[in-house]
Structures are given as C-alpha cells and as structure tokens.
Specification:
- By secondary structure, this protein is an alpha/beta fold.
- The chain folds into two domains: 197 residues, NAD(P)-binding Rossmann-like Domain (Rossmann fold, 3-Layer(aba) Sandwich), CATH 3.40.50; 163 residues, Rossmann fold (3-Layer(aba) Sandwich).
- 38% of the residues lie in helices and 13% in strands.
- It is built from 14 helices and 13 strands.
- The chain has an eight-stranded mixed beta sheet, with helices on both faces. A five-stranded parallel beta sheet has the order 10-9-11-12-13, with helices on one face.
- α5 runs parallel beside α6 and α8 runs parallel beside α11.
- The chain is globular, with a radius of gyration of 23 Å.
- The relative contact order is 0.08.
Length: 430
C-alpha cells in the first residue's frame, strides 16, 4: 500500500513513521523544504522522534519526503492523509484555509479509488461541507463513488512515551459506509484498534469532546486554585488527596494557562459552529475565559512576591522557565509562556526565558515579535542575576535543587518545587 501523508509536523510525522514500520510505502509531503531535507538526510526536527527512527524508515526505502504533490498520482497513492494546522483567527473563528489549500493542491492528482482522510482537528461538517466540494471540483471525481472520503481525528500526545500511534485506538467516520470500510482497511495496517462511527461529523465531534473535556476540567482546577489560595489551601495537596478516591474522580492539574495546538483552540471550533444552529456554548466559553485569565493571575502573584522582597515589577529582571506548552516537548505553539512574557514586558519588566529544548524562538503566527530571542544559559551567575524566576513549564531535565540555590524568588505554577528544600517566602505558588 502506498500512502501519502500531507503535513510532516507533530501529527503527520509520527503517523508516517508508523505506516512505514507497518510495511506501507509512505510519501511524506510538506510545503516546507527544510523539513523535507531533514527527513531525507535521516534527521529529525521533533524532540521525541529520534534520528534513528527516521534512518530506520529510510533504510527500508519505505519512507521518503518531498514537496512535489504530483507524486500522489505518479506513485500512485492508495490513500492520502491530511495532517495540517487548523488555527483560530484573531476573532477566534476557525481558520480552515490550510485544509482547503491542501485540498486544492491534491485534487488534480487524485485518481479513482483513492482514499482521502482528514486528521486535522476541526468543527463538525468540515469534511463533507468544505473539504468534499473542493476535492470534487478540482478532481472531477465524486466523493463516495469515485474516491473515498473519511475523517479520523489525531490522538497524538507528545512527550508521553506510553503514547504510540499503533496502540491508541483510532476513531474513523466515513462519508458513506463504503468510504468507512476503505478507510478502515488503510488504518488497519498500522493501528491495532479501530473505532468506527456513523459519519465524518460524528468523528469530528468525538475529537472536540475529548479536548473540551480537558479544557473544562483544567478550567475548574485553575479556578479552584485561585479560590483555595485565597483561603490558604494548597490546590496541589487537595488534588493529591482527592485522587486517592478509586471512583468518580479524575485528576486534572492547574497551570499558568493552556497551550498546544489542541486544547486552547479546539473548543472554540464548536462554539463557532453552534451559532449556526442557534445554540449557546456557555460552559465552553466560561472555561476559555478562566484559562486565558491564568497568565494575569501569575503576573499578580509575581508582583506580590516581588513586593515581599522590596522590588517593583517595573524594571525587575524576570526569567520565565519553560517556553514549551507542556513538559518534555519542544512544541511551543500557543504556549502560555508567551502570554506571560508579553504581560511582564507590558508592565515594564526585563524578560528572558530558559528552555533546554527551545534554544532560539522561531517565527510564529501569534508571537512573531519574540522570534530570534535566545534561551539564557543555565548556570549560577546567570540565574542568580534575575529578581524572580517563574516556572511555567516543568521539564524533567531541569535541576530544581539548583534553582533553589541560585534564585531568591521563585513563582511556581507547576508545583515543581514540591519536595525541594527552600527558604521561607522563597517560593510562591501561582
């Protein structure tokens, strides 16, 4: 089976590698020539994917990368899987331009019998209302008759060594029963457990439910963090005790805000789509408000901590520790650290960051003004020169004992300093 995976990022590359391991011949297609060059030379650009993983796939001739989308026809590809970004606009409306532009690019190269699957997270109706007509118009083929169309949401968990593409059950919805059958034949090659659902829309809704569930529960513990802090209660201690209950409770953890390409964004796809049906999504929107407010709360706690040490925020040197949106990954998309840095700068602080996995900030859609900024060095002279250090992301490789020795004032949003010996009023939880 020949498979074309379009978009070689945090979703597409692991998927391409798994199909190659399973015996398929995979063409990785991307508009970024640097990614293509890296892959074809056996190098990885994603932290949790090793060069050895890439080299192994290349050595079997089952993986190649290209910017030439005509390979879909000339290979030919039995299946085309789309894994491209779906951000929000500044008005918090879905931006599916990456999906539609990809569809326009691949449509002229589709041949009868091709299976086209969208994996990009989006709102219910995207596959049949938006993707389908673009593919049909550009190819002259009819979905459900000449080619097969399906949606299967990605379930990547970067940084989690227990999360493997082959082991995570795959939800699949087809435009027609035959589309579903053909899509399942494709994924059965690489994934152990398949979960068929009745339609593309249902599959799209499944992914949104998964991420809305996380967003709402994280908002709950973020709100409780502020309430309990005012009462002198440590939310982390509360969660640790509550999760000993063997039923009816699932632990979620507070932080400085939400990051990544999924949880801060995906719930608003449904909010936007629901308006079309005259439905309100108050719960989702309230959770979004709480989570997006968290950087402000962290800054307030930083001001309080600095005041205790006799310093104003304006003019202080502040170090944000961790730029990635979650621990042990190199993905900084939608990271709350960016919002922290913006707020601190707005209030007149001199802001730097440290992240062992992101030595220099690359251009991003929302935070291009930080592009080119470099991580500081992790050593005593550097760290001790800051008036306060804010732990935004708790990478396991960071030595928190050294931070305790070197920093006079630590604002801990991740409970990273728990168990570390510190001085009174040195650590402030936020």
């Amino acid at each position: 089976m020949n498979i074309a995976v379009i978009g070689l990022g945090y979703v597409g590359l692991p998927l391409a590698l798994q199909f190659a391991r399973a015996g398929a011949t995979v063409i990785g297609l991307d508009i970024d020539p640097d990614k293509v060059s890296y892959l074809n030379s056996g190098r990885s650009y994603i932290k949790h994917i090793s060069d050895a993983d890439i080299a192994s796939a290349l050595s079997t001739s089952r993986l190649s990368a290209s910017t030439d989308f005509s390979l879909i026809r000339t290979a030919p590809a039995h299946a085309v899987i789309i894994c491209v970004p779906t951000p929000l606009t500044k008005q918090r409306e879905p931006d599916i331009s990456y999906i539609l532009n990809t569809a326009r690019t691949i449509a002229p190269h589709l041949v009868p019998g091709t299976v086209v699957v969208l994996e990009s997270t989006t709102f219910p109706g995207t596959t049949d209302e938006y993707l389908r007509p673009v593919l049909e118009q550009g190819s002259g083929l009819t979905a459900g008759r000449d080619f097969h169309l399906a949606f299967s949401p990605e379930r990547e968990d970067p940084g989690n060594p227990q999360s493997r593409v082959s082991e995570v059950p795959k939800v699949i919805g087809g435009l027609t029963p035959l589309c579903l059958q053909k899509a399942m034949e494709v994924y059965r090659l690489a994934v152990k457990t398949l979960v068929p659902v009745s339609s593309c829309r249902t599959a799209e809704a499944v992914k949104l439910l998964e991420n809305i569930f996380r967003s709402v529960n994280i908002a709950l513990v973020n709100e409780l963090k502020m309430v309990y802090s005012a009462m002198g209660i440590d939310i982390w201690e509360v969660i640790e005790a509550a999760k000993t209950k063997p039923f009816g409770f699932m632990p979620f953890y507070p932080g400085p805000g939400l990051g990544g390409h999924c949880i801060p964004i995906d719930p608003f796809y449904l909010t936007w789509k629901a308006r079309e049906y005259g439905q309100a999504t108050r719960f989702i929107e309230l959770a979004g408000e709480i989570n997006t407010r968290m950087p402000e709360y962290v800054v307030d706690r930083t001001i309080e901590a600095l005041n205790h040490h006799g310093k104003p925020l304006k003019g202080s040197k502040i170090l944000v520790i961790g730029l990635a949106y979650k621990a042990d990954v190199d993905d900084e998309r939608e990271s709350p650290s960016y919002y922290l840095m913006d707020l601190l700068t707005k209030y007149g602080a001199e802001v730097s960051y440290y992240d062992p996995y992101i030595p220099v900030i690359k251009p991003t859609r929302e935070h291009s003004h930080w592009a080119g900024t470099r991580s500081v060095t992790w050593d005593e002279p550097t760290i001790s020169s800051f008036d306060a250090c804010i732990i935004s992301t708790a990478h396991k490789v960071i030595n928190w004992e050294e931070l305790a020795k070197w920093s006079k004032c630590i604002i801990d949003t991740r409970n990273a300093m728990a168990g570390v010996k510190t001085a009174p009023n040195q650590v402030w939880k936020a």
